C-alpha cells in the first residue's frame, strides 16, 4: 500500500517537533452488500475506501489527522497536521527504521468474496426469503441482507513496528414479521465469520431464515413477560453479550485508568462466582472478532480476564500500556483510518462449567429461559445494565413452557457475576456483534455455555 | 457555485439513454478536542469526502460509493453501480426523485464566525468546561471534556432535473462526569450545542454534568407497581424518535408498522399533536432540502390524537401512490436514501415540569432510560426499558430510584398521555424534548 521508505520519512517528519511517538495507520477497504425486502432484491451496493491516519503523541497529548491521499505528499501533510495538534517545540532529527513483522494468518480465507459472482450472493437472499416464507401462513414480511468486506491495513510506528494484516468478514441477516390476531411479532437471525465465501459450506442460510421465522411465529402466541425479580437461565451462545456488556467494558484499561469502572483496583480479588473464567481472545480463528494484528500493529492474543472468579487482568492498548509501563494485550482497535484507536474487546467468552444444561432448567422451579438475548447497554461506572430478551420462555416446575413477549432484563454487572450459580458444559459462540464505544463500532464475538443467574429483574408488563 | 455540484453535474451528464442516475457528493471537516486533567488528551483535525452514485435501469437499482473525489475512481464507481444494476429485481416503483415544484424554505445553517473560530479558543473552552464541572461539586470528577465542531457540504443532482447544493456547520461542548460517595459511583453528562461558538454555554453543559452525576447517588430500587411517569424532555425526545419510526412510509408500505391501517384513526390522547418540521431553525436537524434534494417541509403526523399522515421519500411514496413528503434521509455518501422523520416536535402544553409533578399523586420522574434499542420493538409495539429517576409522592419529589424497568406498549403509551408540558427543549437529535406525563405504566423493580 505504502513503501517502507515513505513510511520512515513520514514518521520522522511527524516527530520532528519533539514528540515521543508517531504512528501511521493506512487501510484499504472493499465491500459488497445486497438487500432483499418484500420479495424484491432492492439493490446491490459496492464500496471502496482507503486512507491513512497519523497519530502523534507528545506527553499526555495525542494529535491525530487523517487523509484519503496516500501519496507521500498527502501523508506528510497529515503528519504535520497531527504534529501541530500535539504541539511541542524544537526541531528534532530522528530517523526511524522499520522492521516488518511476521505475517500472521489467524483466519485463513479460501475463497475471496470478490472472486464470487454477485449473482451467487443475491441467490443467498432469495433462498432465505423462500425458506422463511414457506415456514407458515402467518409470515407477513421477510427482509434479508448479505454483506462482505475486506479490510487490508498496515501500521508503522516510531518504535520500529511495521505490521500488515488482512481481515475478510461476511455476514447474513434475516428478519421476519409474522402477523396474527394478537398483532405483529418479529424474529431475527444472523451469522457472520472472519473467513471467505467458504463460510456457506457450513452456514445453512435456509436454516437460519427458518429459525428467524420460527421465532416470529412462536411469539404470536406469547404472553406478556412477568415483571419482577426471577431466576434466569440463558441459553448457550446467546449470553456472551451479557459478559461483554456487564463486565468486559469495565475491564478496558482506558475506562479503568480514569476511575470510571466498577472493576478499578480489583486485580487479584474475587469479582465473580468461582465457576467463571472469562477470556478475551483475538486469535479465535474464523470468529467475528478475530484479528491477526490489532489496529496498532500488536499481535492478537488470548487474554484471561477472570480466572475461577478472580480478576486477573484488564485489556490494554498502546497508550494505556505505555503509561503503566507494561505490555499491550492486542486490544487496540479502531473503526477506520478516520478514528483513533482505543481499548476494545475481540472475542469475549466464558469457558465451560461442570453442569448438564438440561439439569440447569430442571433445577429451576419458576423462572425465565432466554433462548436468544438481544442487544444491551451498560453504565460502566455503576455496573447497571439492560438487555433485550428477543426470544424467551417461562420455566415452570423445571420445564420450559410458554413463550414470552419481548422485554428487557436489567441487573448490576458485579452482582450478576456473583449470582451465577449454575454453569453448563455446552459452550457455544453467539451471533456476530458490533460493539459501539465513544462513537466507534468494531466487530466483536462472544460466547458462553448455558448458565443460570439466581436473580434478574424482568421488565415485562404482567404482574 | 460549488465544485461539488460541478462533480455531481458531470456524473449525471454521463447517464446513458434509459438510465436514471443520481450523484451525491459530500465533503466534511471536523475538529475534536478532548481535555483531561487540564491537558489536551487528543486533538483531531480532519477532512473527508466521497461520492455515492445510484443508477436505475428497467426498474433495477444499483449503487456504489468511494471515499474520494478522484476522477479516475469516480469513473470506476459509476461502472460498479452500473454493474450492480444487473442483479436487482425489477421494481416498478424504483427511481430517483422528481422535482415537485415546492419552493425551498431558506434555513440559515452556516456560520462564518464558527468557520473562523481559532484553535486556541476551542481548547480554552474545553479546559474551561472541565474546570467548571470540577468546581461545581467536590464529589464530581471529569472523565473527559470535549469541544467539537464540524462542517459539511453536499451536492445532489439527478437525471430528473434535481440540482441542489447546501452546507452547514455546528459546534458543541460535551462532558462526561463521575460522582462518588461512600463507595458508590454514578455517571453524568452535559452538553451545549450551537451553530455559532457564542451559542455554547459552559455553565449549561457543566452544570448539567455535575447535577446529573450526583442526583442518583444513594438511589434505591423502587417497588414494582403500575404507576404514572413524568418523562424528562430528553427521554420524551427519545420516545418521540421511536414513535416517528413507526410512521416511516417505507415500513408502512411493507406492512412493518403497527400504524399501517390506522390513517384517520384516533391513535393517541387528544393532547398529542406531533409535527415534523425541518424548516424550524431551532431544530438541531433543521435542513432546507432532504436527502434526495426536495425542499424540506413541515407536516402534521398526529393531530389532536388522530393519525394524519406518514413520511415518505420518493420510493415509498410511489409504492403507496402518494407524493414524497421530502423525508429522504441520508447517512452520508456511503448509502442510498432511506425514509425518516427529520425534526419531530410535540405541540407543547402549558405547565412547567414542577406543575406537572404537582399533579401526580404516585409516580416517578424519569431522568434517563436505557436499552431502548433492545427493549422496544416498533413493529409489535412492545415497550420495555431500563430507567432511573426520582420518586413522586403527593405531588412532591422524593428519593432517587434506579435499576428498574418501565413496561407498556407504544400503542397504549400514546393513549395514556396525561399531560404535555410547556417546557420545550431543543436537543441535538431528530426530536425536540418536552416534559410528558404518561399514566398506567408497569414499573418493575423489587
What value does the average pLDDT of chain B take?
95
Number of helical segments with 4 or more residues of chain B: 11
What is the total number of structural domains of chain A?
Answer: 3
Sum up the overall morphology of chain A in one term.
globular
Oligomer: heterodimer
State the major sheet of chain A. Answer: 7 strands, mixed
Distance between the termini of chain B: 63 Å
Number of domains of chain B: 2
Query: What value does the Rg of chain A take, in angstroms?
Result: 24 Å
Entry summary:
Chain A is an alpha+beta fold and 463 residues long. Chain A is built from ten helices and 23 strands.
What does this structure look like?
The complex is a heterodimer of chains A (463) and B (446). By secondary structure, chain A is α+β, with helices and mostly antiparallel strands. Chain A folds into three domains: 82 residues, no CATH class; 99 residues, PmbA/TldD superfamily (PmbA/TldD fold), CATH 3.30.2290.10; 233 residues, no CATH class. In chain A, strands 1, 2, 3, 4, 5, 6 and 7 form a seven-stranded mixed β-sheet that branches. In chain A, strands 9, 10, 11, 14, 20, 21 and 22 form a seven-stranded mixed β-sheet that branches. Chain A has a five-stranded mixed beta barrel with strand order 8-15-16-18-23. The longest helix of chain A has 16 residues. The radius of gyration of chain A is 24 Å and the shape is globular. Chain B contains eleven helices and 18 strands. With 446 residues, chain B is an alpha+beta fold. A six-stranded antiparallel β-sheet of chain B has the order 3-2-1-4-5-6. Chain B has two domains: 212 residues, PmbA/TldD superfamily (PmbA/TldD fold); 228 residues, no CATH class. At the A-B interface, strand 1, strand 2, strand 3, helix 2 and helix 3 of A face strand 2, strand 3, helix 2, strand 4 and strand 6 of B. Strand 3 of chain A pairs parallel with strand 2 of chain B, so a sheet runs across the interface.
Amino acid at each position: 500500500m505504502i513503501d517502507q521508505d515513505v513510511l520512515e520519512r513520514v514518521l520522522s517528519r511527524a516527530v520532528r517537533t519533539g514528540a515521543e511517538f508517531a504512528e501511521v495507520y493506512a487501510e484499504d477497504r472493499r465491500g459488497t452488500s445486497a438487500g432483499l425486502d418484500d420479495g424484491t432484491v432492492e439493490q446491490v451496493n459496492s464500496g471502496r475506501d482507503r486512507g491513512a491516519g497519523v497519530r502523534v503523541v507528545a506527553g499526555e497529548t495525542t494529535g491525530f489527522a487523517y487523509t484519503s491521499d496516500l501519496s507521500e505528499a498527502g501523508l506528510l501533510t497529515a503528519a504535520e497536521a497531527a504534529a501541530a495538534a500535539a504541539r511541542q517545540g524544537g526541531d528534532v532529527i530522528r530517523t526511524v527504521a522499520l522492521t516488518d513483522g511476521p505475517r500472521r494468518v489467524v483466519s485463513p480465507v479460501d475463497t475471496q468474496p470478490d472472486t464470487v459472482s454477485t449473482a451467487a450472493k443475491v441467490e443467498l437472499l432469495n433462498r432465505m426469503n423462500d425458506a422463511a416464507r414457506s415456514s407458515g401462513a402467518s409470515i407477513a414480511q421477510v427482509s434479508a441482507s448479505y454483506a462482505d468486506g475486506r479490510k487490508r491495513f498496515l501500521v508503522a510506528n516510531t518504535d520500529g513496528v511495521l505490521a500488515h494484516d488482512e481481515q475478510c468478514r461476511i455476514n447474513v441477516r434475516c428478519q421476519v414479521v409474522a402477523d396474527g390476531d394478537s398483532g405483529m411479532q418479529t424474529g431475527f437471525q444472523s451469522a457472520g465469520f472472519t473467513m471467505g465465501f467458504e463460510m456457506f459450506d457450513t452456514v445453512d442460510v435456509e436454516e437460519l431464515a427458518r429459525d428467524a421465522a420460527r421465532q416470529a411465529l412462536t411469539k404470536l402466541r406469547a404472553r406478556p413477560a412477568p415483571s419482577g425479580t426471577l431466576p434466569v437461565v440463558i441459553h448457550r451462545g446467546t449470553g456472551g453479550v451479557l459478559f461483554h456488556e456487564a463486565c468486559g467494558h469495565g475491564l478496558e484499561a482506558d475506562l479503568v485508568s480514569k476511575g470510571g469502572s466498577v472493576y478499578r483496583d480489583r486485580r487479584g480479588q474475587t469479582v465473580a462466582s468461582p465457576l467463571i473464567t472469562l477470556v478475551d481472545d483475538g486469535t479465535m480463528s474464523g470468529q467475528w472478532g478475530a484479528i491477526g494484528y490489532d489496529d496498532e500493529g500488536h499481535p492478537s492474543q488470548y487474554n484471561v480476564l477472570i480466572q475461577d472468579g478472580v480478576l486477573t487482568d484488564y485489556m490494554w492498548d498502546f497508550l494505556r500500556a505505555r503509561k503503566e509501563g507494561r505490555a499491550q494485550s492486542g486490544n487496540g482497535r479502531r473503526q477506520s483510518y478516520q478514528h483513533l484507536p482505543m481499548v476494545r474487546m475481540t472475542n469475549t467468552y466464558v469457558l465451560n462449567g461442570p453442569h448438564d444444561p438440561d439439569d440447569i432448567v430442571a433445577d429451576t422451579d419458576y423462572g425465565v429461559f432466554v433462548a436468544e438475548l438481544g442487544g444491551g447497554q451498560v453504565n460502566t461506572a455503576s455496573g447497571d445494565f439492560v438487555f433485550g430478551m428477543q426470544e424467551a420462555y417461562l420455566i415452570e416446575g423445571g420445564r420450559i413452557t410458554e413463550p414470552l413477549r419481548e422485554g428487557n432484563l436489567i441487573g448490576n454487572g458485579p452482582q450478576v457475576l456473583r449470582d451465577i450459580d449454575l454453569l453448563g458444559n455446552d459452550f457455544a459462540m453467539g451471533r456476530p456483534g458490533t460493539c459501539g464505544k465513544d462513537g466507534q463500532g468494531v466487530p466483536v464475538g462472544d460466547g458462553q455455555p448455558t448458565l443460570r443467574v439466581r436473580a434478574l429483574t424482568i421488565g415485562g408488563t404482567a404482574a | 457555485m460549488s465544485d461539488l455540484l460541478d462533480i455531481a453535474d458531470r456524473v449525471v451528464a454521463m447517464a446513458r439513454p434509459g438510465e436514471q442516475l443520481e450523484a451525491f457528493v459530500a465533503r466534511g471537516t471536523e475538529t475534536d478536542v478532548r481535555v483531561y486533567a487540564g491537558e489536551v488528551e487528543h486533538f483531531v483535525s480532519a477532512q473527508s469526502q466521497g461520492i455515492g452514485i445510484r443508477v436505475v435501469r428497467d426498474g433495477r437499482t444499483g449503487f456504489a460509493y468511494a471515499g474520494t473525489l478522484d476522477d479516475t475512481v469516480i469513473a470506476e464507481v459509476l461502472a460498479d453501480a452500473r454493474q450492480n444494476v444487473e442483479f436487482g429485481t425489477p421494481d416498478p416503483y424504483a427511481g430517483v426523485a422528481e422535482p415537485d415544484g415546492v419552493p425551498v424554505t431558506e434555513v440559515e445553517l452556516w456560520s462564518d464566525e464558527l468557520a473562523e473560530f481559532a484553535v486556541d479558543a476551542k481548547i480554552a473552552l474545553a479546559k474551561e468546561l472541565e474546570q467548571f464541572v470540577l468546581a461545581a461539586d467536590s464529589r464530581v470528577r471529569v472523565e473527559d471534556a470535549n469541544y467539537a465542531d464540524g462542517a459539511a457540504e453536499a451536492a445532489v443532482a439527478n437525471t430528473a432535473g434535481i440540482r441542489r447544493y447546501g452546507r452547514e456547520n455546528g459546534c458543541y461542548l460535551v462532558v462526561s462526569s463521575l460522582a462518588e460517595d461512600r463507595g458508590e459511583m454514578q455517571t453524568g453528562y452535559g452538553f451545549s450545542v450551537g451553530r455559532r461558538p457564542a451559542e455554547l454555554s459552559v455553565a449549561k453543559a457543566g452544570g448539567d454534568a455535575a447535577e446529573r452525576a450526583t442526583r442518583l447517588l444513594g438511589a434505591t430500587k423502587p417497588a414494582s407497581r403500575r404507576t404514572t411517569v413524568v418523562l424528562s424532555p430528553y427521554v420524551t425526545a427519545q420516545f418521540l424518535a421511536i414513535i416517528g419510526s413507526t410512521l416511516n412510509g417505507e415500513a408502512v408500505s411493507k406492512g412493518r408498522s403497527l400504524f399501517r391501517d390506522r390513517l384517520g384513526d384516533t391513535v393517541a390522547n387528544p393532547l398529542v399533536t406531533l409535527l415534523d418540521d425541518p424548516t424550524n431553525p431551532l431544530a438541531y436537524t433543521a435542513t432546507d432540502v432532504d436527502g434526495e434534494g426536495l425542499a424540506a417541509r413541515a407536516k402534521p403526523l398526529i393531530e389532536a390524537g388522530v393519525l394524519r399522515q406518514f413520511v415518505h421519500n420518493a420510493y415509498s411514496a410511489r409504492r403507496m401512490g402518494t407524493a414524497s413528503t421530502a423525508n429522504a434521509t441520508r447517512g452520508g455518501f456511503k448509502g442510498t436514501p432511506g425514509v425518516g422523520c427529520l425534526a419531530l416536535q410535540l405541540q407543547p402544553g402549558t405547565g412547567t415540569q414542577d406543575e406537572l409533578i404537582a399533579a401526580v399523586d404516585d409516580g416517578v420522574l424519569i431522568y434517563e432510560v436505557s436499552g431502548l434499542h433492545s427493549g422496544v420493538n416498533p413493529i409489535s409495539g412492545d415497550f420495555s426499558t431500563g430507567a432511573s429517576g426520582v420518586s413522586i409522592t403527593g405531588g412532591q419529589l422524593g428519593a432517587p430510584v434506579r435499576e428498574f424497568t418501565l413496561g407498556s406498549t407504544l400503542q397504549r403509551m400514546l393513549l395514556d398521555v396525561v399531560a404535555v408540558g410547556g417546557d420545550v427543549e431543543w436537543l441535538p437529535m431528530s426530536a425536540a424534548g418536552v416534559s410528558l406525563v404518561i399514566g398506567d405504566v408497569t414499573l418493575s423493580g423489587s
